[in-house]
Amino acid sequence: CHTSGMLTPNGKEYAQKIPREELTHLILKLLQAWKEPLSHFNQHHQELPDDSLSKAKQISNMVHELKTGVEKVTEKMQSMGIISNSLNGMASSEAAGLSIGNEADMMSDSDFIHCFRRDSNKVQSYLKILKCRIMPENSC
């Protein structure tokens, strides 16, 4: 996986020990790291059946929307003083170095999907942990 070089906590208990700011940064980094590979996948798999191609584009759009949503939440957290302003622009510049380039051509579709699923699960877990920290009234 092209994101294997990213340092991410293994397991929920380790992720819960990471400060909110770092966890938010990690979420943004993972989402940004998938922007180019998903676009590359969509461009190079035009031969897929229409429903599969449509699903791939839908997933790509959802990742973009999720990243935009996390960025908005981050801005709100910064304005409320929950986290500092040190996250501005960090995820984009750091993830830019995680280009998939030729890896996309060499990675099988099943490997690509496996990696995406793995990272999607991480993002989902990290978002749940972050939500519980920010809104403890949800009794997580």
Describe the structure.
GO terms for molecular function: hormone activity. This is PRL protein. 66% of the residues lie in helices and 0% in strands. With 140 residues, it is mostly helical. The chain has one domain (16-133). Helix 2 (20-33) runs antiparallel to helix 7 (109-134) and helix 3 (35-43) runs antiparallel to helix 4 (50-79). It starts with 11 loop residues before the first helix and ends in a 6-residue tail after the last helix. Residues 90-98 have low confidence and may be disordered.
How would you summarize the topology of this molecule?
Blueprint (H helix, E strand, L loop, with lengths): L11 H4 L4 H14 L1 H9 L6 H30 L10 H6 L7 H4 L2 H26 L6
Helix pairs in contact: 2-4, 2-7, 3-4
Comma- or semicolon-separated keywords:
single chain, 140 residues, mainly alpha, 7 helices, elongated, Somatotropin/Prolactin, PRL protein
- Per DSSP, the total helix count is 7
Helix percent reads: 55-70%
- The overall pLDDT average reads 78
- Determine the N-to-C terminus distance: 31 Å
Strand count: 0
Radius of gyration over C-alpha positions, nearest whole angstrom: 16 Å
Count of distinct structural domains: 1
The major β-sheet equals: none
Cα shape: elongated
Q: Which quaternary structure do these chains form?
A: single chain
Spans of at least 5 consecutive residues with low confidence:
90-98
Strand content: under 5%
Derived structural class: mainly alpha
Order of helices and strands: HHHHHHH
